[in-house]
What we know:
The structure holds four protein chains of four kinds.
Chain B: H1 2-6, H2 10-35, H3 50-55, H4 60-63, H5 78-85, H6 93-104, H7 124-130, H8 135-139, H9 158-167, H10 174-177
Chain C: H1 5-36, E1 47-53, E2 62-68, E3 71-77, H2 90-93, H3 95-99, E4 109-110, E5 119-120, H4 123-139, E6 146-150, H5 156-168, E7 173-175, H6 181-191, E8 200-204, E9 211-215, H7 226-236, E10 246-250, H8 256-260, E11 263-265, H9 272-285, H10 291-297, E12 298-299, E13 304-305, E14 311-312, H11 315-322, H12 325-332, H13 336-348, E15 352-355, H14 367-379, E16 389-393, H15 413-420, E17 426-430, H16 433-437, H17 441-448, E18 452-455, H18 462-466, E19 469-470, E20 481-484, E21 492-497, H19 510-521, H20 523-528, H21 534-545, E22 552-553, H22 557-568, H23 579-589, E23 591-594, E24 613-614, H24 618-627, H25 638-644, E25 662-667, H26 681-684, E26 699-703, H27 704-710, E27 717-721, E28 726-734, E29 741-745, E30 769-770, E31 777-779, E32 782-788
Parallel strand pairs in C: 6-7, 6-17, 9-10, 9-15, 10-11, 12-24, 17-18, 18-19, 25-29, 26-28
Antiparallel strand pairs in C: 1-2, 2-3, 4-5, 4-19, 8-16, 13-14, 20-21, 21-23, 22-23, 25-32, 26-29, 27-28, 27-32, 30-31
Chain D: H1 2-5, H2 21-24, H3 28-54, H4 69-80, H5 84-93, H6 103-124, H7 133-136, H8 143-163, H9 167-176, H10 181-188, H11 195-228, H12 240-266, H13 275-306, H14 309-319, H15 324-342, H16 350-377, H17 392-415, H18 421-442, H19 446-449
Helix pairs in contact in D: 3-17, 4-6, 4-12, 4-16, 5-6, 5-11, 6-8, 6-17, 8-11, 9-10, 11-12, 12-13, 12-16, 13-15, 13-16, 15-16
Amino acid sequence: MARWGMVIDLDKCTACQSCVVACQVENNVPSMTPEESLKGRNISWIKVVPFPEGSFPEAKIRFLPLPCMHCDDPPCVTVCPVDATNINEEGIVRQIFARCIGCRYCTTACPYTVRYFNWYEPIWPQPMEQAHNPDVSVRPKGVVEKCTFCHHRLQKARANAIAEDRAVVAPGEYTPACVESCGPKAMYFGDLDDPNSEVSDLSRSPRAFRLLEELGTRPKVIYLAEGERSGTTG
Amino acid sequence: MADTVQQESQEENAGHRNRLLAGKAFVAAFLLALIWPFTPSIEQPIQYNHQKHIAAGLECSNCHTLYENSAWAGLPTADACAACHAEPVTDSSEEAKLVQMLSEGKPLEWKQVNRVPNHVYFSHKTHAVAGEIECATCHGKMDERTAPPPAPFFEWSMDNCINCHEDRNASVDCNACHR
Amino acid sequence: MRLGRREFITLAGGVAGGAALGRVSLRGISRLNEALEPPSALYPGEEQWLRSICSLCSGGCGLKVRTVGGRVIKVDGNPIYPVNRDGICPRGQTLTQLIYHPDRILAPAHRSAIDQPWETSSWDQTLESLASTLRRLRGADQQNRVLMVSGRSRGLTSKLCSHFLSSYGSNHFFELPSGMETSQRALEFMAGIPNDGKAYRMAYDLENSRYILNFGCDLLEGWGTPAHTMRLFGQWRDIKRGRRTTLIHFGPRLSVTAARSDEWVPVEVGTLGAMALGIAFVLISEDLYNRSFVESFSFGFEDWTDRSGQAHMGFRRWVREEYRLSRVSEITGISSETIVRIAREFAAQPGSIAIGPQQSPVQPGRLSDAMAIQALNALVGSIGTRGGVSLIPEFGWPLPVADGNETMRTASLDGLVAVLDQSPEVLILDQAAWFIDSLDDAHLDMLNRIPLIVSTSPVEDATSKLATLLLPDCTSLESWTDGQSPSAYPYDLIALTPPVIPPRGDSRPWGETLLALARMTDPALESVYPWKDMESLYRASANELSRRENGYLFGTQVDEQWQRMLERSGWWNPDWTSEDEFWDGLVNKGGWWDPATWVSEPQHSFQTVSGKFEFFSQRLEALLREKGGIQPGLQPSVEWDRQILPHHADILPDNAPEGFEWTLDPYEPLVFFGGASRQIPFLQQITSPYSGPRGWRSWIEMSAEDAHRMGIEEDETVWVESARSRIQRRVRILEGGKPGIVGAPLGGAPTTGRWARVESTLAEILVPISDPYLGVRSHATTRVKIYKA
Amino acid sequence: MAQLAETPYPPLSGNDEVLFHPIERTTRGFYITVAILLFFTVMMVVAYITQLREGLGVTGLTIPVYWGIYITNFVFFIGISHAGTLISAILRICHAEWRRSITRAAEVITVMVLLFGAGSVITDLGRPDRALNVILHANFRSPLLWDVCSITVYMTGSVIYLYLPLIPDIAMLRDRGKKWQWLYRLLAFGWSGTERQHRLLEKGIAVMAILVIPIAISVHTVVSWVFAMTVQPMWHSTIFGPYFVVGAIFSGIAALLIALAIIRKVYHLEEYLKEIHFRNLGQLLLVMSLLWFYFTFAEHLTTFYGNEPEEMHILMLKLYGPYSLLFWAMVIFCFIIPVGILGIPKWRNVTGTITASAFIVVGMWLERFIIVVPSLANPRLMPSQGIYLPSWVEIFISLGFFSTFILFYVLFTKFFPIVSIWEVKEGREKSLQEVHERVRTYIPHPLKEG
Lengths: 234, 179, 789, 450
């Protein structure tokens, strides 16, 4: 059984937020009205968070693309009173929109703040609903939603694999939308349990770190710290 | 305390019983009212005869073109019908209706009978091709139908899905179907 | 307790009733649940993956489009399109929101004045009314009262626009400046271009650069082709490629590029040229420059004497005397140590390149700065080399017409504004929201006096707000779309894709509209453009292209390597043998390109007066002589040389008026790059990666230090006042920003449509600064004061 | 035994007619009060309908402040509920004779306020229509489900505990034969006042009194665990259980005191709710105030010394940042003012105690708010998104909850005696004797020695 994980090379990220939009388009995330947007209620399953470091002139801003960490020990799953969020054998943490009661306990329990709530019925000004991805459900108001690692793509990839009598989804056959759209190729996706996969290779890099590891959540999104600048002499 | 209850007057008891009966009637009515209207019958634009077409040698995939290679089965387009019915082949009144529609260039708007909820990912390909499940398992014997089904043959509830998945050792992971 | 019959009935009834009620409520609730579900999506239908090209900026990335049941669901990068290979910028992603935008204009419409309601009309009617106006003006020999401003700077439609105007008789065609104009002019002056009438463009081989000095370019915010630059950035830092490319950013503003560079050197405003010359000083005085290149292939490095016997100062002496480290350090505010360190690193390895200056339609930079930057490239010998800079012939879609003359493409904003003064009668705004964005209220008043303004925008935007005639274009996914090498891209490339979906509503590709307009205006024009639609025009154009004897149809990256290898051994194995094969290949593969365009061997023949790279540009000198010099009456002397050699000149007056202590630095954020896209909600939600998703209105960026001193909080509204006017803006506090510098994005809230917000434009307060050589604006950095609203 | 018969404490007699007055006579003031309270209830309904139709977007909640004053109210109301059952049970078990006239008033608070505590959570749900999923698809790992369980048990227990001592009084009302006969007949459950019934009732009350104490403590512990079981800074604390329980009892007593003072004034029950009740409860309040301060101090000092950056960030926001006003108001309301008033014996009178109580109730609401909001508003990986301000919907719903709670309370006094008549009577008739006997058993017997 695969254990899906993502590696994000912060050294390559240009903070273009292509991943953010790719995710929204792929997953039928409604765009907010200006009023709601200004209230900070945008839903973006992956967002780019700036981390300014140091002051002028030694300032640096690090940009962190922040999807759901798909923790191996997700704090959100234990607190859900109705089992509407769960982690499956492949380590994907998901939200069952049809069961969620909207108590938002998971959103408060998540130390990464990557779970989102539908404050209103999603708005699709006519005819924007034409672009709905039929593979992804449209969430009703009042439920929590989150990054699914584009799970529907795995469902499709697996359907293909089954149809072709393959036991497993081939590497590269299943890629979330954010990873696919990344211009500088700063994002990698694959099976962390496969010792030969690119992600498991990168996850062992000395630059690799996980966010808020000290909380014991064991995230499956692994970041690669910024690389060292090349030596001064050629 | 039961002693005391027994000491209640007869009249009181009768009134109590009446109220109880009324309550029961109310509950029954409530129940009926809730169940009754929820099996709407679906009207199709053409009273398509599956039996006749299948007997004539058509395969499911001739009209439901997508079911073998995508999540969706696909509904026949006007073009698909026009391939044979540009001119009337029989003297059926339904066919006449179809030919009329085709000649006017009206789109053929079939109504979807079987519909899984919005939050479910269901793949025809996985079920029909990889899982080798007969169409009839979910759709009933369409080769015997002379008119379009007014309601789904299979009740699309999670329990029914899970029962079948368990019987066939298919995945019952929430994520396998919920989208 | 005794259980009698009556009690039993009571009990049983209660139990049954309770159970039934329970069941019913459960059922009822689940029904309610279903009722509250959003309506099920449309019936999906067949899924297809098609190819297209993005038209949201001049980059023209290749797209992979997913459609289901004839609806566009998702747009991604085309993996075999060489420019972007898979990646795509956030703007391209939002094509779905553009196509299905609720404010799409779906039919031609007209109105008598801008305060009147729109009336939709048929294409024939609308075109006829426009054609009759064009006929009338042509009859009265007033063709020059017809103007066209276009937002597409590349591709066949763009060529058609300019050619149409020139055939019609007007020479007022303007298109979106690429921002590279100043750098290109500098390179033309110093390295020269052949005088063969062909178009040339500047290209950087950044893929192979190892050490990049970036003088103010917002590389990661829409420079060149956003997706291409991002791909390059990823490659520079790809561990698998071995050596990491170092990126040093010079510029006062802590831009995303500055933040993501290996080093940010926060020079003072307008001192990029001085910085470049400071680095040149180190290279020269420490003898680090490329001796073989400079000695053999450059002119004006050492002191020289011209034909008239006049002694001239060489670049070496000029820099050593005028740009001593202490002075440069004083001008730029950067320590000498930093300058020396960077200069040594720059000279230490091959593949070093200096790019710049900063670019945007409002601040294309100074020619003198640009020349200083190119001088650095010459000092390290990076002209025409691997990883360097070069001028290469512009290669694009040929317009297959007998008379190939085009209206000169006047790309400057100032030139355009000057024409507005000549009481034009027809103004055609072809996807030109960028243009409206750069105008202030006084300019807009001038526009309001034009009797007929035509807008081609597919959605309501700033141009449709001004227009009295709408000729809705469709998006690139709804029509035949082409692509060609974007600016600074080092390879020849052309691409073509058929429509992905039919045009929405009654919208029509602008190219076809133009062909129809030509037919209706004049039989003479009709004979020039005999094509009925764009497809046949592309076909004709492709036939011309098929006769070229180089390049390949698009392929994978492996193909690319293989083809380069072949070319290096002198082989070329064409993918086609006939016009038809070429056409089929073009449409099926999506395009043609030449991965071997970039000459990897240094090309050292320069088309200058001296035949060498000129530190002292004799072409510039000739130009100045023609114009009578910058300072009238100045005779050839050392003072004269000063004007021609790369130099630094202050752009802002030293003595700022009281209180005007900030410098406003306008820039284009990625999402508004090129001026459009304001109406796209997904883009408004990601306007800046600095402070989270808070779009839908414009802002200024202020350093935390300044904000703290002023007691200004994040998101507070302030007045920004320049010598001209004042506007309100929200403040975004930038941790680590340079004190005294205020970043101000161009673009902002949508001006029309359902999400319109009233906001004064930045142009209102900008005080443009002109370049003394080119006569067009070079900067719009403006002294401002800021106070709480 | 012979000696006891000679006790100098013969049964007292008295007339409790005044206790029936609120039920049997309706004043104009009552109608006005109900009308005012109903107004707020209607506003609440309007606000809630708005919220149901539009979605939770009409609240001031945002990303990341997903919980606001609904949850604050929830914690607060559940805290107040500790007034009744717990206090009355403890006093009953301790045989504190002064309890007799206040237990009912306290128990009613518990039952009524629990409704609104549970209601607050329902209001907070995005999909109240799916609330039953909590039972259908229960996930027992979730502290919220522990809450559902313990509150349900507590609710049931409190209702029984309120109802049992109410039976003899209802029977009394039934026997007086005035309005609402059918109701009283139904509820009296055939009480006829026999010896056996009395024995059963006493036993029932005694069992419930003992059961209800651990349940009550568990309830607020579990409420605190909703927060403490997450890893959010300043929530993840081991002392949250006892801290919340202490705070709950603290606010409960304060609420009870206010209720008693109003009942006393409005229904002229000065004879039943005497100065001594306020004095005693005031003393208890003083102790709780000190205890509360001890916990607050311990909690914040630990955070401060731990100096964990995430926790320190939130702590500093509370001490000096945007929440400092609320924080220091809380300290003043819950500690400085109460201790200042109640610490001086002279001021521990009716006016003094209810003044302190009023401050404490407000202060404790602030405490709940300060626990819920700042930790949420400043998550680890997100820049602060400003301060959360409740919208009109939230304010009206909260006001409505308070007013409807009071309305229910007022209505209760309209139907049932707010002072337990039979217990007062029993006290008058038997307790002097009982106390005398009991106290004698405490005293070392000098007679035997001789």
